[in-house]
Amino acid sequence: MGFTEKEEGLVKESWEILKQNIPENSLRFFTIILEIAPAAKDLFSFLRDSNDIPHNNPKLKAHAVKVFKMTCESAIQLREKGQVVVGETTLKYLGAIHLNSGVADPHFEVVKQALLKTVEEAVGDKWSMETKDAWSAAYDQLAAAIKAEMKAEETS
Predict the structure, then answer these.
(1) Rounded Cα–Cα distance for residues 122 and 2 (Å)
(2) How far apart are CA 51 and CA 128, in angstroms?
(3) How far apart are CA 73 and CA 2, in angstroms?
(4) Is the sign of the CA dihedral 95, 139, 34, 45 positive or negative?
(5) DSSP 8-state assignment for residue 139
(6) Least-confidence region, from 24-33, 52-61, 102-111
(7) Helices in 19-128 by DSSP H: which ranges?
(8) Number of C-alpha atoms within 13 angstroms, CB side, residue 132?
(9) Is the pLDDT of residue 72 over 80?
(10) Exposed/middle/buried for 106, CB within 10 Å: 0-12, 13-18, 19+?
(11) d(CA 114, CA 134)
């Protein structure tokens, strides 16, 4: 079964709440990533040379917003097109940057866990299993597209 209108609505509704406090939610997102996988710090150029998460780092916020927003856009695309469609140039860039940074399959799962936890904390009592499943499906499809491009980059 495809991505439903209700699932898309759940992602969009929680994104509206999430983006009301991007600085705090971005910081929380990266804090959770590093709680789950402390070694992941070295994968992010803006975290490598720091002993803690820089609270006012614009690159941290920008990266978190990209993950949040692209996952939300993936939900919309899944509903409208039945698949995630990332522009070829963007997808090539994402594949190359993730490959060159040393990102591997398990890292995508860490990001997914951090994303879900961040959204759950941000939306509070609006969180449900349906919301979790909708964000999970959208993220999984986005991650699959990036991983496929990473494999293509590897073989080219």
Answers:
(1) 26
(2) 35
(3) 15
(4) positive
(5) H
(6) 52-61
(7) 22-36, 58-81, 88-100, 105-123
(8) 11
(9) no
(10) exposed
(11) 15
